[in-house]
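Ex. 9. Protein: Knr4/Smi1-like domain-containing protein.
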Amino acid sequence: MNTEACDPAELAALREIFASRPDAAPPAGWEAVRAFEAEHGVELPEPYRTFVAEVCDGLPEGPPYYGLLPLAETPSDWGAGRPERLLAEPFPLTAAWLWEEDEEADEDEAAFEARTAPVFDHGSLLLGTDGCGMYWHLIVTGPQRGHVWQIAGEGAMPFGPESPDALMPGTPGFAGWAAHWAQGRDWFPDA
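Predicted structure tokens for Knr4/Smi1-like domain-containing protein:
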């Protein structure tokens, strides 16, 4: 997965997936992408960066279930009172973290929220929601840059890790995530 240069084959696959959708929003354009990056102190990973600038900036119906969000938006159910999103701060995880399996999960609510807040708010761009508090994030800073993660009330897990025991197997990255959706495949095949 190359997050620095846009692979023409990945971009062509993304164009094919989204160009056929009559409800796809027009691209944001390079000026809007660069303004967003300057405002947040990040450079978006490829191929998402070129996709938003040249192909599509949102899709009302999938992926995810409630649509692909435009670049600068958050889902309507994101909630008031959440901390400011800090995209330039590194995303803190490199492996799945299921809160229920955490030995410190019995700590008081404030301490737990302080430990989990960076997972929700640092180093990631919200792609959309499947509802019920399940959010898809594109990681924009940190070791997982370019990967897509699902972060929900139960925990955080990457889409497409290249291991046989992965909870959500597939091709990592935005292009792999979008292709997985377009093919109608289950996110959790063994669930």
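Check your answer against this statement. The chain has one domain: 8-182.
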